[in-house]
Automatic annotation (TrEMBL):
<feature type="domain" description="KANL3/Tex30 alpha/beta hydrolase-like">
    <location>
        <begin position="27"/>
        <end position="210"/>
    </location>
</feature>
<dbReference type="InterPro" id="IPR026555">
    <property type="entry name" value="NSL3/Tex30"/>
</dbReference>
<dbReference type="Pfam" id="PF20408">
    <property type="entry name" value="Abhydrolase_11"/>
</dbReference>
<protein>
    <submittedName>
        <fullName>TEX30 protein</fullName>
    </submittedName>
</protein>
<dbReference type="InterPro" id="IPR046879">
    <property type="entry name" value="KANL3/Tex30_Abhydrolase"/>
</dbReference>
<dbReference type="InterPro" id="IPR029058">
    <property type="entry name" value="AB_hydrolase_fold"/>
</dbReference>
Length: 222
């Protein structure tokens, strides 16, 4: 279902992947610095989640500024929260690369209570989180991650040139939130792995994301 989400005086293009049964939870998903919501990994993940009963709303925001992308993400979350069509108990925010930085920023802002945290945001999924620029490991983009209080899942390639394995593990060890890292063996930032098809890698990512979502939804309702 295609929708246009008001954002300032513009609109963001977005698509709902809707499960057959009425969903209780949703995932808001966005792309990296290049591309848009039709990036194959996002389309594949959205279809996987919807087939397992999780609503997925993915959107395009072309700005290359993280603050701008964060504002757009917040607008989409608000839109979903107030939607009459889908009454959700909660959502997980997910993004790829730069989109995951924006997602982390939104989760941090909302969990610090600047905007009143009512528990609608359940957690954060970071696909290929760009922890640093290529070859610039001294400047880590970890400030939002260290302040997030909701559960976080990282899915990263072990050969990601923007997220050195030991550095991410170091940041994660300092995080106060419940967290998990799933390494895609030998994958680069774009999740390409020599000798494996893109579909094969996407299946691994999708399975990890779904099983983590399921665990975290169950944990909160025990």
């Amino acid at each position: 279902v295609k929708v246009k989400i008001p954002f300032g005086n513009k609109y963001l293009d977005a698509v709902f992947s809707v499960p057959e049964k009425k969903p209780t939870y949703g995932v808001v998903l966005t792309h990296g610095a290049g591309g848009d919501m039709n990036f194959p990994h996002l389309v594949s993940l959205a279809a996987c989640l919807a087939s397992h009963g999780v609503l997925c709303l993915r959107f395009t925001c072309k700005g290359l500024n993280v603050a701008y992308r964060t504002k757009a993400f917040k607008a989409v979350v608000e839109y979903l929260k107030l939607s009459d069509d889908y009454k959700l108990s909660g959502v997980f925010l997910a993004g790829r690369s730069m989109g995951s930085r924006a997602a982390a920023s939104v989760v941090r802002q909302l969990s610090q209570g600047d905007d009143g945290d009512d528990g609608f945001i359940q957690g954060l999924v970071c696909l290929s989180y760009p922890l640093h620029r290529p070859k610039l490991q001294s400047k880590l983009r970890d400030e939002d991650l260290l302040l997030v209080r909701r559960p976080v899942l990282f899915v990263s390639g072990s050969a990601d040139e923007m997220c050195e394995k030991q550095l991410l593990e170091g940041v994660v060890s300092k995080m106060k939130a419940p967290k998990k890292i799933h390494w895609i063996d030998k994958a680069n930032h774009g999740m390409a792995v020599k000798g494996r098809t893109a579909d094969d890698v996407m299946e691994e990512i999708n399975a990890q994301v779904f099983s983590w979502l399921r665990e975290n939804v169950q944990l909160q309702h025990k």
